[in-house]
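Troubleshooting: if your tokenizer reports a length mismatch, compare against these two reference records.
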Amino acid sequence: MTDSAFPEAPFSAPTTIELAATPLAVVRYEGISLDGLPAAFDEGFPALGNLVGAGALDPTGPALALYRGEPEGIFDLEVGFPVSTILDGPLPAGDVSVVGSQLPAGPALATTHVGTYDGLGAAWADLTARAPALPTGVWVEVYVTDPSVAPEELRTDLILPLGD
């Protein structure tokens, strides 16, 4: 078992990890569906990038998306970055606010998907089928590579927090 949600090397197979309650700086969206993801990503990540560029945020790891609820239905979404300490309060970033959050602590199953984002659904289905315990309703995608790389080289780590 590894204790890192942000390893340097890809997960070679589904791996049990222990998540730490890592502080996050995120833009939060409530009650959206898969159709709303492009707009949320296109709004949230540039706002976060502006704060990073201005020195107001100092990410300690790669960009991520944290889904709460049913990803095929309606869910809450947080897009952001891990940071060293949780934010004291909201940071304005254009038309959105960046707020503090955290990864849920506890056991999780993780894997790596390399390829286009279109393949994430199948990768999630495979990971959930291998889960040794019930998922908690939280789904984490860690976008390890910059989205400007060739689509077939995109690395996304998938993390599925598990219940008892």
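Reference record two:
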Amino acid sequence: MASRLRIPARVPPSQALFSSHLTTTSRRSLTISSPLLKKKFQHPQKRPQSKPQPQPSRPPPPPPPRTSPSGPSSGSSSEADTLANLSKIYRWPLVGAGVIVLMTSFYISSVITSLYLNDKSSPSSSPCSSHSHIPSGRPANLTRESAISFDCGLDLPERLSRIKSMRKELSSRARGHVLEVACGTGRNLPYYNWTEVVSPLSSFSSEEQAQKSISRNAKLLDLKASRLYSIFSSSKKKQTDEGLDEKVIGSMEGEVLSYTGVDISGDMLSVARDRVRENVPSLTKIMRKKRAEPMPAFASPTTPETVVEALDGRVRLVLADAEQTLPPPVEGKRYDTILQTFGLCSVADPKKLLRNMAENLKPDTGKILLLEHGKGGYGWIDRQLDEWAPEHFQQFGCWWNRDIEGIIEETKKEVKGLEVVGVERPWLHGGTTYIVELRVRSQQAQK
């Protein structure tokens, strides 16, 4: 047996407290002598571990505050997210509003600038010296040179205000035998389709006519099968075109068979003559570059005078007063389309002019297309139009503050069968521009 370990008596009192521990430890180290005991102590038995007690759940710690790339944000994250969402939502509306304001400011500034320039250049040529202003459709002291400058002065304002695109759309809707009232310098001439005017169907042989009819019907079928045709063909459009034979050349929009332009100013028609020569194919080889004799002056209000006649009368420019009389078409007694741009503002009696146009229009199938300017839809706009009306009349010879819808409604009471097919007032101009389509219903159709 192992000998016991005794604590010497000289152990200090401070160590005497640990005497029992030292005795036990020494005893264990000295009494381990058998192999079994060594194995026992080398591989102790595993005691069952007690199950850990569940700990009370704690809420997760709050996320750290978001920081911007440049540093910590001054506001909360929710406010930053709200501002970011608002900027995404209103970004494009704000851009669109800015573009609209820019275009409107350009249009207004160009009109005001042209008025000031005209006032400074010709202060003594104002036809507004008295309070009784009677529009005649002719600016004061008009010559060929002033007609050319007048025409060039319209390029920028009409481009900025989209009047040019409106002219193009309106002229592309003309068909058949077309009469343009108050054609002026011929600003609509580049937008007509002159194919049938230059090469009419009657000029081809029977075989060629049959081939052209087949190709035309194929184009018509393709047009009707298109998605855009089904979208834009409204009930009003169908009512307008009822009675038309689509197989007949000149019944579809854009198929112009003949053109007659009427204006009261020979100087304006001299500029229109140059445009006819430039825009109608094959006329550059037939017509002279410059007219040999000067344009005649307006003489008789009841006798129209033809100043340009080409392609067997299918293209004509006539000097006449549209309020008094209109020349008949090349074929038939009435026109398929009567078009007028900014003419009701330039005559002394606009209702009389509308009545005259309605009398020269084919009933049921014919249409009157108008592009006019007048009173807007807002009081402050109308006040500005009234204020600038004399200066505008001085330059352009027209009153832009007339009540166009009121004139049409009063004319409807005087002309039986006159109906309004549609009226458009582009919001970009504040409702001051009118695109109107009229027709005249026959007595049988009215029943």
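Descriptive notes for reference record two:
- The longest strand covers residues 256-263.
- The longest helix spans residues 91-121.
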